[in-house]
Amino acid sequence: MAYILSAVEYVQCRLHLGYSSANDSYIMTFTVIARRVPLTRLVLSRGYTSSVREGSVAQSKGFSKKEKAHEDEYARRHEAELLRKLKAEIEAKKEELARLQEKHDEVNSKQ
Predict the structure, then answer these.
(1) Which residues form a coiled coil (predicted)?
(2) d(CA 69, CA 18)
(3) Residues sharing a CB contact under 8 Å with residue 11, sequence separation 6 or more, in sequence order
(4) Res. 58 pLDDT band, cuts 50 70 90
């Protein structure tokens, strides 16, 4: 009988040697035990490490509030810059539209 084992199984083999006085011979027994191991044991080895990791930043409430304030300020500046660009683009399109309207009026007045 053959077993195909997945990554979450392991095999334990035992070899037993014994002597039988009745037959005056040695007995050899080979036991194979296949057992399924939970995947969390094999993969999640970092689960038992400390919560503080190397290179982590301070996790105080004051620091997180300050960090959030900096992120919010960056977001406001970024949105203001995008809005400024869009307004400039709209003004350029309005000027182009006015110029094209003048050309259209000139062409229609000549006809």
Answers:
(1) 76-110
(2) 76
(3) 3, 5, 32, 33, 34
(4) low
